[in-house]
Amino acid sequence: MKLRTALLGATAAFALAPAAQAERGTDGELKLLYSQAVSVMTPYLSGGTKDIDAASLVLEPLAGFDENGVVFPRLAAEIPTLENGGVAADLTSITWKLAPGLLWSDGTAVTSADVLFTHEYCTHPEGGCAQLSKFGGIKTIEAVDDLTVKITFESPKANPYTAFVGATSPVLQKAQFANCLGAAAATCTDANFNPIGTGPFVVTDFKVNDVVSLAANPNYRDPAKPAFATVTLKGGGDSESAARAVMETGEIDYAWNTQINPELQEEMAAAGKGVFISAFGGLVERIETNLTNPAADLPEAERSTVKHPHPFLSDVKVRKALSIAIDRQALVDIGYGQAGKPTCNYVPAPADFASDNTECLTQNLDGAKALLDEAGWTDSDGDGIRDKDGVKLSITYQTTVNPIRQDFQALVKGWWNEIGVEVELKQIDPGVFFGGDAASPDTYQKFYADVEMYANEWDGTDPETYLGQLTCEAIPSPETQWQGENINRFCDPAYDALVAELRTTGDRAKRAEIIKKLNDMLTKDSSTIIALVHRGRFSAISNTLGGVVMGAWDAELSRASDWYRIK
Amino acid sequence: MTDTAIPKAESQWVAVRAQFVKHKGAVAGVILLALLVAFVLIGPLIWRVDGTFVEPDTAKMFKLRNQGPSWAHPLGTDQLGRDMLARLMSGGRISLSVGLVAMMLAVTLGTFVGVLAGYFRRLDGPLMRLTDAFLAMPLLPLLLVLMVLFKDQLSRTLGVEFGTFLLIAVAIGATAWMPTARIVRGEVLSLKTREFVLASQSIGARSHRIILRHLLPNVVSPVMVAATLCVAEAIIIESVLSFLGQGFPSDFPTWGSLLHEGLDDLRKYPMRVLMPGLAISLTVLSVNYIGDGLRDALDPRIRGR
C-alpha cells in the first residue's frame, strides 16, 4: 500500500508540470462529501472540523502549516523568524508583512487594518469566539504600516506561530464584519454564511446543514488557480457511505473522514475508483498506567492520590512487562488499517519531534514474563496469576464504550492473561468518562482503575503544553476538584526542569531535542504511558483528483487551490 | 341405600394440564424454551470452549478471525477469533436469567399492587398515584442512576458478574411492574361486582380467601400477556444498558451485546447478527405461546371447550 501511495505521489508530481500552465476554472466541478454537514462558514463561530475545513476554502490566515508541520506563507510575504528579524531576539514579539497587491474577492485591497480587526473580532469580551485560545498571550497588536502588523506578547513565546497561523485563525474583511462585533457576531448571517475572503473560492449558495456551492475567486492571487470552476460541498450520511461514494461509485471526488474497519477498507480499495489517503498528526491511542492506588477500600478522598503509591504499577518492571506484552501491529490491523500505525511514542509527530523509540514495536511475551520473574512476581499459589507478598497482579482496565476499544481490551486482556496478569474490563460512557464532573467516580481524571485507555492530542504543531501536562503540579486530586491533565500522577523533578527549559527555548532543533528527551522519559524509560496506535486523518480521494497533499496540521481543504482534474 | 357411583373428582390442575397440552403452540413453546434453557445450561458442559478466550499468539489469532462454521467452531468465530457457539451459550445464560428474574419480579409486584388497589377502595387512590409516579419517571435515566449508584458496591461485595446481574434484574423488574398493576386493578374492579364474588362475600369469606381463590385465577390471563411482554423488554433493556456502558462489562457477552457487536459487520457476516437475534426472537416467541396456552388453560370459561 505504501509503495502504491509513493507511486501515486510520483505520478502526481509529473502531472503537476502541465497543471502549472493550466488556466483558472478549466477543470469543471469539484465534488466534496462531508459526513457532517457544514453549518457556518467561519471558524470563529464553530469549533467543528467540518466548518473549519469548509471556511478554509474561502478564508485564509497569514500562514499555514504544511504536511510536516512547518509554517509556510499564505497572505504573508514571508515567514518571520529569528534569523530574518521578524521574531524579536527575546521572543516577545513577531512582525508579519502582508504580500503586496492582495485583493479580497470583492476587489478591495487587503490591509493590516483587516488583521487588526480580526484580532478585535475574536477577542471581543462579549463575543463567544471559538478560537480564542489562538489569540492567547497577546499584549498588543499594532499596524506599523498598511502592510505590516506587529504582535507583542505578554511573555516570551518560544512558539510565536499561533495567531493568524493555520485555518483556525484566518483574516476577516473589516468592511464586511465591522458591525458584527461581540454579541452581534452570530446575528450577521449574511457575513457568516458568505464571507468575503482571499481564498481560491467564493460562496455562491449556502444551505445551512446541507450543501455549500462555491465558484472560483476571480481575484485569487495566483492567476492560474484554482483549476476547478466550481465546488459543491455536500454534507450528511456516515463515513461508510461517504467512502463508498468515492471508492465504489465514483460520484464524489473527495470524502472526508472515512474511518471504517480495515476489512471494509480493503474491500473498497479493490473497487479501484479511488484511494484512501492518511496523514498523521499527534493523536495517539494509549494505555495510561495509574501510579497511585485506586483501591476501593481506601477512604474516598485518598483513592488514586499521591498519598498511596500503586501496589505494583509503581514498579517500572511491571509496567514495562505490560507494555512489551502487547502486539501493536495486531491492534492496528484489527482496529484501524491504513488509518493507524503502531507507535511507542507520546509525541509521534512532526517527524523532527518524534523520538526513534521503536523498542516496544515487537511483541515479546517471553521477555515480559522474564521481567516479572526478575521483579519477584511469581505464581506462588498456582492459580495462574502472579503475586508477591500477598498482592496479586490483578488489573482493572477501563475505557470508553467504543467497538474498536472493546476489541482492543479483549486482545490486550488475552496477552496480559498469558503473562500471568488477571484483567477485569470496564467500559464507561464517553460523555461521563471525558465529562470532567468531579462528582462522578468514572471520569478519566479521577482514574479509579489501574489502567485506562483513550486517545488524545495537542492543538497546533507544538507539543509544549501537551508535555507540560505531566508535571508534578498538574496532578489531579480532590484539592483541585480532580482537574489537571497529569492523570498518571507522574512526578519527576528532572522532567519538570526539562519542561521549564523547553518553555524558554526558541530554536527548533534544540526544542526537538528536549521534546524527544521528555517523550522518552514518559515512554521508553518508565513505561508510564503505554502508547499503542498513532491515529491519523483518513479520507478517500478519487483517482481523477490530482494535487492532493494531505497534512494533519492544518485544515484538509486549506490547499484545495492546488487540486486539479487528472484527464 | 343405593350404591351411586360418584365419578372421581378431577383436580383442577389435571384439567388445566389437559387443556394446556391441547394447545399445540403452547406445547411447542415449552419444548422450545426447554431447548433454549438446555442450550445455555447444559451446552457449556459439553462444549467446553471459553467464549471470551482470545488467542494470545497473534499469528494464530489472525487465522482464527471471522471464520465460517467448521468442526472446530460450529457457528464460526467473531472478529477476534472467539468461538461464537460458546459466546451464544454464555450470553444466553445472562440474557435468559435477566429476562426471567426481571419478569417474575415485575409480575409479582404488579399483581400485588393491582389486586390491593382494585380490591380495597381505600388503597386504590394512593397505590394508583404511586403507579402513575413510577410511570412518569423516565426509565432509562433512572436505570442509569441506579447503575452508577450501586454497581460498584454490589460488584465489590458480590463479584462483578453476579452483582451486575442482580442489579440489572432488580432494576428492570422494579421499573416494569406498572402496566401489570394497572391491568390487574381494572380486572379486579370488574370481577369484584360479579355474582360469584358477591356470593362468596355473603357467606362470610375473608378477603384473602376471595382474592386467592376467586380473583387471582381470573386475572391470570392478562397477567400472562404482560409477563411475556416483560421478558422481551427485559432482554432488550439489558442490551441497551450494555450499549451505554452501564450493563455487563464487555467480557461477559449477552445476546443483546452480541447483536450490537455484530451490527458493524452486518453486510459481510450477517450470521453474527442473525444468531443472537434469532435466539432473542425465539425466546420471546416461545414465552408468548406459553403465556397464550396458560391463559386458555387457566381460564375456566375457555377450559373444556
From TrEMBL, chain A:
SUPFAM superfamilies: Periplasmic binding protein-like II (SSF53850)
Keyword annotations: Signal, Transport
CDD domains: PBP2_thermophilic_Hb8_like (cd08513)
Residue stretches making up the Solute-binding protein family domain: 86-470
Entry GO MF terms: peptide transmembrane transporter activity
Cellular compartments per GO CC: ATP-binding cassette (ABC) transporter complex; outer membrane-bounded periplasmic space
Pfam families reported for this sequence: SBP_bac_5
Signal peptide: 1-22
Biological process annotations from GO: peptide transport
Keyword Methyltransferase: no
Keyword Ligase: no
InterPro entries named among the record's database cross-references: Peptide/Ni-bd, SBP_5, SBP_5_dom
Principal location: periplasm
Gene3D superfamilies in alphabetical order: Dipeptide-binding Protein, Domain 3 (3.10.105.10), Periplasmic binding protein-like II (3.40.190.10)
Localization per Swiss-Prot or TrEMBL: Periplasm
Domain of life: Bacteria
UniProt xrefs under PANTHER family: MONOACYL PHOSPHATIDYLINOSITOL TETRAMANNOSIDE-BINDING PROTEIN LPQW-RELATED, PERIPLASMIC BINDING COMPONENT OF ABC TRANSPORTER
Family of this protein: Belongs to the bacterial solute-binding protein 5 family.
Name used for this protein in its record: ABC transporter substrate-binding protein
Species: Neogemmobacter tilapiae
From TrEMBL, chain B:
Superkingdom assignment: Bacteria
Keywords: Cell membrane, Membrane, Transmembrane, Transmembrane helix, Transport
GO cellular component: plasma membrane
Protein name (Swiss-Prot/TrEMBL): Peptide ABC transporter permease
Record GO biological process: transmembrane transport
ABC transmembrane type-1 domain: residues covered: 92-291
Annotated organism of origin: Neogemmobacter tilapiae
Main location per the UniProt record: membrane
Family matches, as Pfam families: BPD_transp_1, OppC_N
Xref: CDD domains: TM_PBP2 (cd06261)
Family: Belongs to the binding-protein-dependent transport system permease family.
Coiled-coil segments on the chain, per record: none
Subcellular localization: Cell membrane
Listed PANTHER family: ABC TRANSPORTER, OLIGOPEPTIDE TRANSPORT SYSTEM PERMEASE PROTEIN APPC
